[in-house]
Amino acid sequence: MRVSIDTLPGGANPNEDWVAGTPSLAIVLDGLSTAGLSTGCSHGVPWYVAHLGGQLLASLAEPDQSLSDGLAEALEQVAHLHPRCDLKNPGTPSATVAVLRRRYEVLDHLVLADSPIVLAANGGFTVLTDLRVDSVLPEMRAEVEQHETHTPGHREALQRFVLAQRQVRNTADGYWVAAGDSRAAAHAQTGSTPLKEVRDAAVMSDGVSRLVTEYETASWDDVFNTLRSKGPRRLIQDVRDTEATDPTGRRWPRYKSGDDAAVAYCQW
User: Taking the complete model, does pTM exceed 0.90, yes or no?
Assistant: First the structure.
């Protein structure tokens, strides 16, 4: 498997996305925004995704290790790296996870939260994602979207929303992400696809997929044509160019003017 990767921050703050590729793996992590709120951890989200990504690569070095077991092992290892932090704090650093693995003549996938994997075949596209978060607190999400970005009203509404999300994060009544408790790995969505059924694939954070799903300025056909001809950096730049036409979120209400973006493009 040949994997091309790229990632860029959405603004001046450190990048909270993480991406890696090997001859058998493509991994994207999207760190959850803290909205400036306390996390109980002294390290921060960029530290968390970098260490989780590294541990996940190591735990999946054995091809017969299941993706969910590998994620659980990686979560345990990262927890051991910062035992003095309050990992039971509901705002502890956390991330979405998307993994695509070539194992012999099969593609295994794992998605935990809303970073999608898109498989391209001659008959169209299959989007593998976990959208449970979208059903959580819709009224509060709508309140955030009423405000333009970079305004006091937007910031205050976003903090209220994030605080409420934290109370249902990694619970049966909410949604699941990678965080301090390794049991979240059991709630990831997993599956396998015969390699012969897939032409190529992309693993990405929602900072990239929103070009199709939220902004609706491109199709998956457009996305893959860009990846095939110009690569991941051009695709991310297309997202940035689109966001630059609506810097305050009037046309496309959102949490940030520009979100961190990461993509791993896979060919064989």
Answer: yes
